[in-house]
Amino acid sequence: MLTHLILQSNRPPPCGIVVIAPGSIQSFEHTSEHAKAQAGNDIFDVSVYEDMTTKYIGSSGVSRTDPLVSGSFLPFGASWPRTLILVGTADQLIDASRELEKRLAALNRPVELVEYYERPHGWWIMPHLFLVNIQDAAQRIARFVLP
Asked: Which of the four CATH numbers 3.90.226.10, 3.40.50.720, 3.40.50.1820, 3.40.50.300 does domain 13-145 have?
């Protein structure tokens, strides 16, 4: 969403975007069977994410599918920068990452989706459990941002 707002302004656009398990879809009624099946593997159940979204939106009246709430629904255009998406396959929010990748690829925007097998939401802050994946992610990010 921040990238969208920057692209709408007179500010210089970013050269690229790195997102880790983006919560870019805040509407959960179409959660995939794969994501639902991760309930016992993810840190939180999807109902916790739904509750967080309800609290985030509050009484604003803004829809969960509003692009400024669910970034996967932004009107991506030809100026959208290259994007690296990192997510775990046990993350119940994985649908957002997959949808974001699908929408950017459909517009021929440079996008790479990396899925870490059986990693929950938040894996990137647990080096005592997922050090190898965190090191791999750091190397991918470094390659992505360095010329």
From this structure: 3.40.50.1820
